[in-house]
Amino acid sequence: MPVAANTPIDLIENVYANLAANMAMGREKLGRSLTLAEKVLINHLASHDQELERGVSYVDLRPDRVAMQDATAQMAWLQFMTAGLSEVAVPTTTHCDHLIQARDDGKTDLLAASENNEEVYDFLESVCAKYGAGFWMPGSGIIHQVVLEQYAFPGGMMIGTDSHTPNAGGLGMIAVGVGGADAVDVMTGFPWNVRWPKAIGVNLTGQLSGWSAPKDIILKVAEILTVKGGTGAIVEYFGPGAESLSCTGKATICNMGAEIGATTSLFGYDEAMARYLKSTGREDVADAATRVAQDLRADEEVLQNPSAFYDQVIEIDLSTLGPHINGPHTPDLAREVGELGDEAKANGWPAEISAALIGSCTNSSYEDITRAASIAREASAKGLSAKSKLLITPGSEQVRATIERDGLLADFEALGATVLANACGPCIGQWDRSAEDGHTAGEANVIVTSYNRNFPKRNDGDAATLAFVTSPETVMALALAGRIDFDPLVDTLVNDAGEEISLSTPVGIELPPQGFDPGENTFVAPPANGSSVEVKVSPTSDRLQLLEPFEAWNGLDYEDLPILVKAQGKFTTDHISMAGPWLKYRGHLENISGNLYLGAVNAFDGYEVGYGKNQLTGATQTFPDIARSYHEASQGWVVIGDENMGEGSSREHAAMEPRFRGGLVAIARSFARIHETNLKKQGMLPLTFANSEDYERLAEDDRIAIRGLGELAPSQTVNVEVTTAAGDTWSFETNHTFSAEQIEWFKAGSALNIIRASI
Q: Does this model's pTM top 0.90?
């Protein structure tokens, strides 16, 4: 399967060729008009004889491509290598964006990353060459920005091993974040299995103005739906307000749909998308999409009467939407910027801002940068200076080269800003603040970012850092003030001459008038025949480790399982398998298992975060140490989670680590979609309490038995028997979401074991 630096037009035209016929089939099958998401999904069905019941049916789909970032790609490729195939079955790319640590500046940090991660980069480049995948070198940019610029197209479908893959929905693509095992399915030619999603419609009316930005739309939606309100659903934006947004503005909104748990988000094809395609050198794609435009948006009847076609409809008037900011610690805690000062005072949060950060996969477009730069330019002209440390992260080499050419980087540098590498950096914990003047780890401090997540320790590994997320222009204004109790709509700043200055409304430019500068060529195409390429994994490496298949289920009920951890409150993938310094072990399952549950808050009293009781020894230990002890003793165990367990990243390490260490069952009040699927893929048993109050009854010394596994079947409850330390027993019922096909994954020990057996 040949892979280029962009999506070939013939692939796109092949997708469009069947649109009309498949839409007619879909309308007949469902007996009604179709939403946009339904159109794209139906056009990618592996077969037409599948049930399409929202929130119930599981379907097999055929995505057009797979994209992986370097942290998650390692484990995905290690799994693929065990399948025995000579090449990938669909166009696949690997993007080096996660392993570059932010410390000094872009050039210095990129050189350091190339040296420190040489072994991993060599592995990824060689494995891509061997199996026919494209490789984007370090410095290329953040995967989602590169995909938007090069690969995304209206009506297409892709999966990616990163939770913010939905960024491509800004270009009308169904793009879904998945774990590596899902990616391997598609890379090996198997269909992608997923529950047919529910549909949430967001009707945008009016038009943004002033300081309001697309970021404010998704912050408002997150406030309405909360972090799990989109679980199992595709969020579809429509209405006149949607058409008023730029393509990259749409991408910002879709990107952060991951923060509400949505399967993905998308917009219908319109003129803004056509403009973006043409500006990025894809006139042929724009022309092809325009010819089938009616099938690249929801049917007219749906748009006229959305409540009859969506499971939930949200109405937002953009004309009345003010600039918002969320945080700390959760992406659904949003309010208007002007309200944050009083809230901070009431909660005892520091008012001073230690650092302001602009960029990330969410907000590093040309339009984003121009709006923030317009404020920076005015500030310099009026004698204002940044009161907080200011960091700028271009989203891609193309964006970096273009904003440098157009003088925008100079606008930020005039205020003392540091330009970081074209990479994720501080957004995903790759931020080394050890040399930062005035910053002491462990001391409460506030940062403001244009990023997407703000979990504790998310950005700098410091639980004392309070992270607030807002638009790039608002970040810039707050950096000038140096305080979070500043409202750019009404407050003034004092310049070097003692004059009071009101900031002007930010001015953005949708697309570069001179076109995009592609910058350096950082794409490496695979050879025509990679059979002679050697993929080297040293047996003594502490970064890479070949995988052994997980054992199949032995056909017996699970008995006498201790509870390794009962997590209280937030139990995100950051709590389960931290990023930051642990990213270097993403290709070494044993070593990265050293972070297992380190961020978990123990629901049992008397423990620090990440600590619990070893039931074999009675000792108080870290959770990874307890897990290793159980593993070495061949003792299976259970993990207990609270609401929305596994919220956040797509990282399958959060499922592979417990499975590697002997974890057999995860029981929670509820699961995030990707994490639940990852657990299933790796052969674990994710169950939810039928009565959520049973969570409270579980004691530290209880032993767990899972009954009736031989009769495990879709939609049937699973009985859990509890034996207390005193020898008493009680039981409770749990639910699961396994399909008949997914039960076979469990029986085989993993979904990959089934693939191995069939090839």
A: yes
